[in-house]
Amino acid sequence: MRFLTFITITILSCATAVAQELFSPNKALKLSFSLSAEGTPVYSLFYKGKEVVKPSRLGIELFSSNEVKFGAEITKKEGVNTSLYHNFEVVNTQNTTVDETWQPVWGESQNIRNHYNELLVSLKQKDTHREMNLRFRLFDDGLGFRYEFPEQKQMPYFVIKEERTEFAMTGDHQAWWIPGDYDTQEYDYQQSRLSEIRAINQKRRQANLAQTGFSDTGVQTALMLKTDDGLYINLHEAALVNYGAMHLNLNDKTFVFQSWITPDANGAKGYMQTPAQTPWRTVIVSDDARDILASDITLNLNEPCALADTSWIHPMKYVGVWWEMITGMKEWSYTYDVPSVHIGKTDYTTLKPHGKHGATTENVKKYIDFAAENGFDGVLVEGWNIGWEDWFGHSKDLVFDFQTPYPDFDIEAIHQYAKSKGIKMIMHHETSSSIRNYERFMDKAYQLMNQYEYPAVKSGYVGNIIPRGENHYSQWVNNHYLYAIKKAADYRIMVNAHEAVRPTGLCRTYPNLIGNESARGGEYQAFGGSKPNHVCVLPFTRLIGGPMDYTPGVFEMDISKNNPNNHSHCNATLANQLALYVTMSSPLQMASDLPENYRRFPDAFQFIKEVALDWSESHYLEAEPGAYITVARKAKGTRNWFIGNTASKDFTSKIHFSFLEPKTTYVATIYADAKDANYKTNPQAYTIQKILVTNKSKLTLHSVAGGGYAISLFPLTDKAQAKGLKKR
Amino acid sequence: MRFLTFITITILSCATAVAQELFSPNKALKLSFSLSAEGTPVYSLFYKGKEVVKPSRLGIELFSSNEVKFGAEITKKEGVNTSLYHNFEVVNTQNTTVDETWQPVWGESQNIRNHYNELLVSLKQKDTHREMNLRFRLFDDGLGFRYEFPEQKQMPYFVIKEERTEFAMTGDHQAWWIPGDYDTQEYDYQQSRLSEIRAINQKRRQANLAQTGFSDTGVQTALMLKTDDGLYINLHEAALVNYGAMHLNLNDKTFVFQSWITPDANGAKGYMQTPAQTPWRTVIVSDDARDILASDITLNLNEPCALADTSWIHPMKYVGVWWEMITGMKEWSYTYDVPSVHIGKTDYTTLKPHGKHGATTENVKKYIDFAAENGFDGVLVEGWNIGWEDWFGHSKDLVFDFQTPYPDFDIEAIHQYAKSKGIKMIMHHETSSSIRNYERFMDKAYQLMNQYEYPAVKSGYVGNIIPRGENHYSQWVNNHYLYAIKKAADYRIMVNAHEAVRPTGLCRTYPNLIGNESARGGEYQAFGGSKPNHVCVLPFTRLIGGPMDYTPGVFEMDISKNNPNNHSHCNATLANQLALYVTMSSPLQMASDLPENYRRFPDAFQFIKEVALDWSESHYLEAEPGAYITVARKAKGTRNWFIGNTASKDFTSKIHFSFLEPKTTYVATIYADAKDANYKTNPQAYTIQKILVTNKSKLTLHSVAGGGYAISLFPLTDKAQAKGLKKR
């Protein structure tokens, strides 16, 4: 339901070249808009009087086109104007105020307030009479704006050569960034000055052939910045629909970013049909880093839920036949017997299994048992379907059929067993980025899921895109990801897409998109490890667009304990891993480690069993990008709270429980780093302490580097519970 | 059914570098194979002792590749050997003889003899131990050979940079050719010396921006050649499956052609997984041009029918709501009311029709009536479905949904009306080359056809391919065409694909592929006209691969009589148009002109009504590429014969009816050019004459330039029929 509490529209019907000003509802933010002498749109942004974005140009550069008529020769058209970036005049401006509250199907808050002042500037290009509008929405915590192209005879179609949106920074800010790339987001974050990006990118590129950056100063969004006078700025986009993903390219002399859209095989960046619009470009800004995390701008700029019925969408906590493969103990594949697999021809029943296959009926049943014993919702199984012997690196078109199980995976028996235990199975569709192949099998694959009552699918897009030459984040491929989500909704299936384009709040519109990876996930802890700052950056970057299936919960940091051949180390303490369930909120949360590792630490595992997945309130208590995050969240439909803290370096957390219900005593169970905990040498040193707290309580806790803490808070219902517990 | 009458296998198990020789069953053809000093395979071909193909190298050039492993960094692999063209040794050779006869579902003969001697040369590359085989099949009328790549651990996958198959010609032959192009085959044929190709191509390219030739000496296959000493040579390919279409690039100093495969967006020419093979490369050769037309090599080199049940495949003679649009009298579209169409959003019922829409219920019913009155099988309707307002030239992804009729096309009423008249409707699916979009809707589109009992679909691939950067004849897009054919077979639907890759005999394996355009079709007679030689070249080039939906039967050559704004002229006499039904045999034949034009010439139209579509025998009586063709065919399941002759210049045809049954008198109805006929100034001047003939009869007939004649022959069953008829 949607409460529209207040709307004001003021139409200024006079054309004017005078600068327009727009203030946020609380007046903290000010947007200024004008046309340059050349008729180029220019905007700038101020926060509490400080310049955040210096005057920055807006516009689109088009491809020229030839006049093409069916049944005739093609002739070159004279004078095709490729500029949608100058020679404009303002024909109209319109001001609107919206203040409404809406309820997401799942998320960090039960109610989301959408409160902004809007300025719509209607532009007309003087020579071509082409119309382009700029819509600015100024919230208390930032700006969203987009280009809109009304339906018009003079421009029914156009092709984008480049979007020329500038974000002119005021100086050489600190940045938390990953390099621009059309095909992967799975980078470790860098923290550096803007002026240092070029050198770091050049050095890294020499080391890894896979990284195909388009520019030495190209970076991905969401990009987190901090100015020397303490402003936090986040640049991203919202509602990426029918468009290529936006990268930013830095002029490291002027500190001006310009949009750099992911191209297709021809280098074209968007095929547009009017009416059309770009995604929203967002600038979240505050002098308090917590506001960046709390911002709902990205969701608010997306369209309301498009699904009539969402009753089938449920958050899920799950385990999976997965960490065994990620760590190298087991394999996705079944046999070494064939040089390559021919889907539809290779007869697996005649092949000798290599004995390392993870997705066996027997092994899956163990996970089902474990999930049922511990109150989980689901079990993911990877490697269940034929084709894994040669799925990667061969640009193989017919790589999987998404419906034929390996001989040792009895899909019917597993279905019955899971059902008898109250466990839902999570399907896995690795596409190997063979897009057409996946679409060809999609209906049958989803039908198979319906048949065996799998409510959710984890899809994967590892490797180079087929059709070759296309890029993971181009308009055409982005359209595929959304096609898969919409078609899944037709089958009442939830989607958790890995290696797809990073999210931009589309889960508001399609809440069956319950997760994405689209960043360097937990698996890298078994691929050489991630830096301790990683999980303190992700909430400021990747998570701005939506939840991440990060797969936390590693209890055994020494991966060689699982697989002697894997010498990777998970750079985190056990308490840090618990905290991630709260700091990296997601309606889909995995406990990624092996059941036997959880069984070694049943007291700590208790937190994973209890932690909620869906929230009615979230309070960001402490935050600094790359350094620390502390957040308290109230479990939806309950009176219980959960708190998480992660820290990249030694950190003393001081929290006040003022967010709790008044006059209520809570039993707080605190899972914290032990004094001698060390993410490298002593990661499993944790303490568990129970205390009583109220909304007057304060608490100081210490997190080590790569550490953190987690707290569960349950209202005291029986005084006997309080026995022996200290009050704070 | 397949009769395997004789097979001999001789295995030479010794490795040898000595040249191998292979003779055709009748010894007229000799193939020589050897390895060069560098270990490069070399073949040459002789016909009756004359060199046809000089020593020509064979091999494949590969792309280098990096070692890629999932979950690891990519490292450059040292020493990746990109040669599959040298350093080979012969490890085995094997000789086989096959002599079998098989029956096609439809075609030019009821029984096809497949008689060849085969040489299989097994090669191993000395340094890499990679295996590659060459399989040569020598028929009495030509050579087929292909590369085969056995399944092998040392080469499970490879990527083709170029196939290096040479066809070294012995001199500066005459050639009938069209320029190499990755996206269109709809060219007028050129006749020139090989040495003249470059200049002609350069000149043409300047005149037309749409033609994107890759080389000034690139030509398409099937390529027809004639040597100065009277040998006819045809170069083409058979069984183009999972590979890019082959062009030929000429070295016009040495007259050596080299294969030039259609690339993808990355320039790669084939992604191969062993076991694999290339299509067959064919060299049809004779000193009698009629043998080129009669050759069954292309079909014989394809796999037997893959469909278990073919009872639903039937030849069809049809009319259509089509020529009205081609000539510009009517339009495919419905309205001018919108700048562009949004499929699924645009509400046509609210739009003003422009009144020129061809596919109205009323108009379709007229064609159904006409078809029923004249014994036709079907009616094609183009422009029945929404989206035609802006389907072309905009690189529009969601361009059609293949299922929503325009408001004035009542699909249910038309279905019922057609059914009541015994007429089958032919569906039309223009894809605008938006491949993914078509595949997304394909099941629903075919289901709609089943629902309304459409037995056949004409599909179109006009415009640039989406995904952008792909080419019409690349491996990936060729795979789509075959996907569409196979899926159609699942729905018992016959396919007639226009603008798809030119055929290579795949109709043997998938006989529901009842037609292709894939060349400059009859429609160009309304787009400025085609040259009179065109239909005398096509049987030697385009038709080598399979039947063409040429859409003959134009009776009104002055297109301005249909549409005063169209000043095109059909460069043919009316008798020539009749002859095409026999000279350009196809199981799918259209009578393309307007019913009112047929009604003006009922006596001539009688031939179109009577002519058969499927044959038990074909006898090529006279032939010269680009000049004239005379063929007699016996209608399958009957005792009736039909003869056609077309001539590009004045031609005196002398035929002997020796192919007729002995001791039988036939009533021959001869539709010939009148003496004063002229394809430009007097095209409708024809004579119709009835005579009696037997297998002893001879006949001399005169065809004017752009003219021809057609003859129907029915056994005399009632002596009364013979009254007044002369005997020959």
UniProtKB/TrEMBL annotation, chains A, B:
Residues making up the signal peptide according to the UniProt record: 1-19
InterPro entries: Aldolase_TIM, GH, GH-type_carb-bd, GH97_C, GH97_catalytic, GH97_N, Glycosyl_hydrolase_97
SUPFAM superfamilies linked: (Trans)glycosidases
Domain Glycosyl-hydrolase 97 C-terminal oligomerisation: 614-713
Domain Glycosyl-hydrolase 97 N-terminal: 23-304
Alphabetized GO MF terms: carbohydrate binding
Cofactor(s) needed: Ca(2+)
Gene3D superfamilies assigned: 2.70.98.10, Aldolase class I
Superkingdom as given in the UniProt entry: Bacteria
Domain Glycosyl-hydrolase 97 catalytic stretches: 322-519
Keyword entries, A-Z: Calcium, Signal
Subunit structure: Monomer.
Protein name as annotated: Alpha-glucosidase
